[in-house]
Design a protein that fits this description.
The protein is of the alpha/beta class. The protein has helices at 15-27, 38-47, 64-72, 89-98, 110-144, 151-164, 181-190, 209-217, 234-237, 253-265, 291-296, 302-308, 322-339, 348-356, 362-376, 389-392, 408-419, 424-431, 435-444; strands spanning 7-11, 31-35, 52-56, 79-85, 102-106, 171-174, 199-203, 242-246, 267-268, 277-278, 282-287, 311-314, 345-346, 381-382. It has 4 domains: 7-131, Response regulator (Rossmann fold); 148-316, 3-Layer(aba) Sandwich (Rossmann fold), CATH 3.40.50.300; 318-395, Helicase, Ruva Protein, domain 3 (Orthogonal Bundle), CATH 1.10.8.60; 405-450, Orthogonal Bundle (Arc Repressor Mutant, subunit A), CATH 1.10.10.
Length: 450
């Protein structure tokens, strides 16, 4: 079966060989280009990016081995097949280690050339398909996240989008406990070129100082009494991905010093180890502390703070995001109803109380409160008496107003919407009105689907 046509660049200082190869490959349906040396090869590859490069080991000036890394850094990263003499097999092996896909030993038969090109092209197409699938999965995962429509969070999403693509930039996420710092860190990772790689997290306050170092940096067998075998640390586990350090302000000063060294050198040594390990890890850190004040008080290293704070994102507290409360409540309500297998509705009175409550525990408190309400609810409606005590009897002494008398119009409209499974277009059609008119009426009657 004939292989699909590909763009092939031949870099060889033998014009007769290049002419023969080019003629044969064009007859096979491929597009070809030729360059006699490394400089012209790079220039040609930049002008018309090839899919495959047939690269001669022996070139005037820069050798094929020297040229190989430059080719692999080109946009599209062409697949390189090294052409070597029979006495240069060791160079062919070295080329494979540097990233070449395959090699051909001169002289070679056209049949061998066909097999190599077909194998390399199929591998390249498979890689392209895998990357496309990963991109689709990444986009779907991001779509599955709850994106809030409030102005404050829209500004946060813009910052996340801005920094996500800059995959080597360290990010510091600031905000009170429960504002969604881990959520933001995951979005940064999922929106970045590292999305298909590991996302590894550590809650810095969850481990004692004696374990933090080995957890972060790993250890060699025999490094200490209980070190029976080698263990990789979280930095190594996050290689090529993202390491999320939650509540980084809780790190002891001794660990801060070692963390700073790793971030600056992009290398680490396991406990008890001698050989440095190169790292390619983006660090996203988060804290609810004021790190500037912590540095002034001597509890946090100023140089580490500056190293972490290359790009900062501040998450506003929920009390300053009134518009987000209803969206979040709906989201958590739907999840809780699904998890606890209940069919419920919320009354407007409960919604208003949620919006007026200050939520000192932020999103985490809201989620837990909604789950408790769903668990406690009896019947098909979530009522004020199902609310936690702090919502029904807030610290300011206000009391939940009595439930308003039933509005027949509202009840009839709610019943119709339930019959239509809350399909607003269908409900509007049955009422003989436009959808915008229906939405306006729902707002007037304070009708929500939770």
């Amino acid at each position: 079966m004939r292989e699909a046509a590909v763009k092939i660049l031949i870099i060889d200082d033998d014009p007769e060989l290049a002419k023969v190869l080019g003629l044969y490959l064009r007859k096979a349906g491929h597009q070809t280009a030729f360059a006699p040396d490394a400089d012209q090869g790079l220039e040609e590859a930049g002008r018309q990016p090839p899919e495959i490069v047939l690269l001669d080991r022996r070139l005037p000036g820069m050798t094929g081995l020297d040229l190989l890394p430059h080719l692999l850094r080109l946009p599209g990263r062409p697949a390189v097949v090294m052409m070597t003499g029979m006495t240069e097999i060791s160079d062919a092996v070295a080329a494979i280690k540097l990233g070449a896909e395959d090699y051909l030993s001169k002289p070679f038969e056209f049949e061998t050339l066909d097999l190599v090109i077909q194998r390399v092209a199929e591998k390249r197409n498979l890689h392209r398909d895998v990357e496309a699938l990963k991109q689709v999965q990444k986009e779907q995962t991001v779509r599955d996240y709850l994106f809030l429509s409030g102005q404050a969070m829209q500004a946060v999403y813009e910052q996340i989008e801005q920094v996500a693509e800059k995959e080597k930039v360290t990010v510091l996420i600031l905000g009170e406990t429960g504002t969604g710092k881990e959520h933001a860190a995951r979005l940064i990772h999922l929106s970045s070129p590292r999305a298909a790689k590991p996302f590894v997290e550590l809650h810095c306050a969850a481990l004692p100082e004696s374990l933090l170092e080995s957890e972060l940096f790993g250890f060699e067998a025999g490094a200490f009494t209980d070190a029976k075998k080698q263990k990789k640390g979280l930095f190594e586990m996050a290689q090529a991905g993202t390491l999320f350090l939650d509540e980084v302000g809780e790190l002891p000063l001794s660990i801060q010093t070692k963390l700073l060294k790793v971030l600056e050198q992009k290398q680490l040594r396991r406990l008890g180890g001698l050989d440095p390990i190169d790292l390619d890890v983006r660090v996203v850190a988060a804290t609810n502390r004021d790190l500037e004040k912590e540095t002034q008080a001597g509890r946090f290293r100023a140089d580490l703070y500056y190293r972490l704070n290359v790009f900062s994102i501040r998450l506003p507290p929920l009390r300053d995001r009134g518009g987000d409360i209803v969206e979040l409540a709906k989201f958590f309500f739907d999840l809780a109803c699904r998890d606890f297998q209940k069919k419920l509705e919320l009354t407007p009175q409960v919604i208003r109380r949620m919006q007026s409550y200050p939520w000192p525990g932020n999103i985490r408190e809201l989620k837990n409160s909604v789950e408790r309400m769903v668990i406690r609810a009896r019947g098909g409606v979530l009522k004020p008496e199902d609310m936690p005590e702090e919502l029904r009897f807030p610290a300011d002494g206000a009391r939940l107003e009595p439930e308003a008398s039933a509005n027949p119009e509202a009840e009839d409209l709610r019943r119709l919407l339930n019959d239509c499974h809350w399909n607003r277009s269908l409900a509007a059609q049955k009422l003989g009105i436009s959808r915008p008119t229906l939405l306006k009426k729902m707002k007037e009657l304070d009708i929500y689907k939770m």
